[in-house]
Amino acid sequence: MNRxxxxxxxxxxxxxxxxxxxxxxxxxxxxRAALVENVDEPGxxxxxxxxxxxxxxxxxxxxxxxxxxxxxxxxxxxxIGNIFVQPPGVVSLLDLGTGPYTSSMDVPTFxxxxxxxxxxxxxxxxxxxxxxxxxxxxxVMEAIGTAPFxxxxxxxxxxxxxxxxxxx
Length: 168
Fold this sequence. Notes:
Layout (H helix, E strand, L loop, with lengths): L1 H33 L11 E8 L6 E5 L7 E14 L5 E7 L7 E2 L3 E4 L7 E13 L6 E6 L10 E11 L2
Antiparallel strand pairs: 1-9, 2-8, 3-7, 3-9, 4-5, 4-8, 6-7
C-alpha cells in the first residue's frame, strides 16, 4: 500500500510539471514584451519653438522657427500665441508652412480683446493641428493683417510644439 501511494504522488508531481511547462511560456513571453521601449513615443523627443516678432508698420509678417534636426521628422500638434494689430485691423490669415515640398495650413485666430496694450487689438492663437516637417526644413508662419502689426514695441509671439520621430 505504501508503494501505491508513492506512485500516485510521483504521477501527480509529473502531471504538475507537464502542466507548468506549457502554462509558463506565455508568462515569460509577456515579461519579455514589457521590456521593449518605443523610442518614437511623443514624450521622449519633445519639440517646442517660440518666436517673438513685431513686423512694425507691415501688414505681412513671416516668422521662422527652429530647424528640424537631421534624421528626424517633426510632428506639430499645437500652435499658441498672441498677435498685436493696430486698430481697427484684424488678422485675416495665419498660415503654417513646414517646408518647400509641403502644402501650407491655415491656423485659426480669435479676437482676444479690443484696444489693449498700447491701443493694439489682440488676437489669440490656440490651435490643435497635425502637420509634419521633414529633416532640415524650417517651419514658418505667415501672418497677414488688414492693418499694420504692432508698432508699440510689445511684440507678438507664436509657439509651435509637438515631437520628433526618428527616420529609418
